[in-house]
Amino acid sequence: MSERKRPAEERDDSQNPGLDQEAAGTLKLLVGRIASVLGILAGVGGTVAALAVDSTDITAAAAAILLGVLGYFLGARRLGAVSVVVGVVLLLVLAGASSGFSQGR
Predict the structure, then answer these.
(1) How far is CA 56 from CA 19, 45, 53, 65, in A?
(2) 72-76: long-range contacts at Cβ-Cβ below 8 A with a sequence spacing of 24 or more?
(3) Domain containing 74: what range?
(4) What are the angstrom distances between the C-alpha of 14 and each of 4, 9, 28, 77?
(5) Does residue 2 sit within a domain?
(6) 30 near 65, Cβ under 8 Å?
(7) Model pLDDT for residues 51-87, shown as the tens digit of each residue
């Protein structure tokens, strides 16, 4: 009788790799979503700055694209793709603003 383990003794949370992988996957997805949302905010803010202040700085567009790609690879597929699209649209707006198509008014 002493050779058989009881169900409480069989469960050892420190040696359960499934739980650690699940927590790591959840953390990865959370970081991906945060990066993607920051990329979207950078892209929208850069677009407003390009149109309102007549700025031609591409830093916000590059940040939006980079954060979108990071979010996409971390599991936030839709948000990452939206962030990349917003960054590319910002680059097009900046190209138009620098060549005189948009006067910022």
Answers:
(1) 48, 13, 9, 16
(2) 72/32, 72/36, 73/32, 74/28, 74/29, 74/31, 74/32, 74/35, 75/25, 75/28, 75/29, 75/32, 76/29, 76/32, 76/33, 76/35, 76/36
(3) 33-98
(4) 21, 12, 20, 31
(5) no
(6) no
(7) 788 777 888 899 999 999 999 999 989 999 999 999 9
